[in-house]
Amino acid sequence: MFNRPGFTDLELPQLCEVFTVKGGTGQGHAHWRGKQSRQFFVEMQKANSGVVVNGVVYFLMDALYDAMIISGLGAGIHPDFIFSFDLETEEWREDIQGPISSSFVFDGDFDPQEYFSIWHQLCLAELKGYLVHHQRFCSTMDLWFLTDYETRAWVKEYSIQTESFIPVLEYDVKPLLVLDDGRILIWLGSTGLLLIYDPRTSSFAEVKMRHLAEVGMYTGSLLSLQNGDMV
Question: What pTM was estimated for this model as a whole?
Fold first, then answer.
């Protein structure tokens, strides 16, 4: 759990607490436990800014730093910076530099507006058991996979041209699942549409069902009965 400090509260630490949910009875009284905060704030308001992959929670940096950079207060802060919290050890891990900002060259030809716009293009997802950093810009969506945490190796496995089926102004685009045949299940937040993208033909197909106000993937319960059965 985190609080969300305002722009005028940057000197205050962001609250970070953990609550463990245990199954069965006789486990004692669970309670919130305070943990050390990060130097920077994690994003709490933007959709798809946090994701769990193999027992680790990954967070994007809070977008309020966009305003700080514009004001000249946030030098060295990159929009694709990622924090990670290990659920087993309940400790923060080393931070990760995302794959997007490293491509920028800060020279005389640097376009600050293009750089600032990145803050609103980035989201996180879990696909095929990997942390995925996806960037949606105009008619393109790039999916970057973190293939090696230790070396911080990112691989752009997909660059999807979306103009044929996804409106340019649709910013809430969420890749959900890579199917066994390689197709990708994608949800559009503003319309509630569920799409299937085929990378072999670069085509989209709509899943015929009612529009969904919210959607998520079920990967197994965090809760278990006292005898170990999953619920």
Answer: 0.76
